[in-house]
């Protein structure tokens, strides 16, 4: 296996190289075909064949690498679907992009002039994507601004509707008002606000904290995950003021400056820069895993029994229930993860 992986890296990881190394099949990657007009309304037969062959080889590589090449039984197919869990219909997020444009700073010196000459007259060279393109925005507001009160009526904090409803469902809280949604606890809380102007008592608006935009926003983790993971336990407690709302454009600008600071910290203190899951750190990993499990259970009825039970266990643990109903699966499949 080690020699196999070493050969892969030595020969390259392009689709053409992988196809030749693993499948012993050579793809036509001629410059004329690769750089033909792929914006045309109608493709040529060569273009259609080129794209179709790429798709076929990609599937063949996937099957070969996972060992699905010797059997076409239903059991093998079910196992194949299980391996695809969480990978289907995932939006592409490429590397080397800065604000939506290709980073050309690493091009060889002397090629700039030639590139400018070749690009004249090509309108595609002048199309710039707006900041924030490619982000998956929230589908629902982050702040519901419900209130929790102590037994004596003192306001404790704001929270989302689901959390407030949980106290009612458990019989440990009473509904005092529907608008605003106020729940009074039946037990003494572990702590109380120090003043009436406490941050956690503040009604928070669902808008970008930078520009005030009220749509297309996502959460911004003030302390990046690769740093927070090294904090002491007491500093890892959930604090809502560690998360703010930014619109996609402001989020992109913020990430640009974040990356500059990360580079400085890496030089000065050997601090980590990103991680293998960096592209998913905008999401809550647990909620994302539960959502993926629910979608697999809803849409993949032929999952292996053991895999199905694993996914059901994740959902039971998340919702603290013994039985998972169809309604539970539907709710879980639409979980907000950002």
TrEMBL record:
<keyword id="KW-0540">Nuclease</keyword>
<feature type="domain" description="3'-5' exonuclease">
    <location>
        <begin position="11"/>
        <end position="65"/>
    </location>
</feature>
<dbReference type="InterPro" id="IPR051132">
    <property type="entry name" value="3-5_Exonuclease_domain"/>
</dbReference>
<dbReference type="GO" id="GO:0008408">
    <property type="term" value="F:3'-5' exonuclease activity"/>
</dbReference>
<dbReference type="InterPro" id="IPR002562">
    <property type="entry name" value="3'-5'_exonuclease_dom"/>
</dbReference>
<dbReference type="InterPro" id="IPR036397">
    <property type="entry name" value="RNaseH_sf"/>
</dbReference>
<dbReference type="GO" id="GO:0003676">
    <property type="term" value="F:nucleic acid binding"/>
</dbReference>
<keyword id="KW-0378">Hydrolase</keyword>
<protein>
    <recommendedName>
        <fullName>3'-5' exonuclease domain-containing protein</fullName>
    </recommendedName>
</protein>
<dbReference type="GO" id="GO:0006139">
    <property type="term" value="P:nucleobase-containing compound metabolic process"/>
</dbReference>
<dbReference type="GO" id="GO:0005634">
    <property type="term" value="C:nucleus"/>
</dbReference>
<dbReference type="GO" id="GO:0005737">
    <property type="term" value="C:cytoplasm"/>
</dbReference>
<keyword id="KW-0269">Exonuclease</keyword>
<dbReference type="InterPro" id="IPR012337">
    <property type="entry name" value="RNaseH-like_sf"/>
</dbReference>
<dbReference type="Pfam" id="PF01612">
    <property type="entry name" value="DNA_pol_A_exo1"/>
</dbReference>
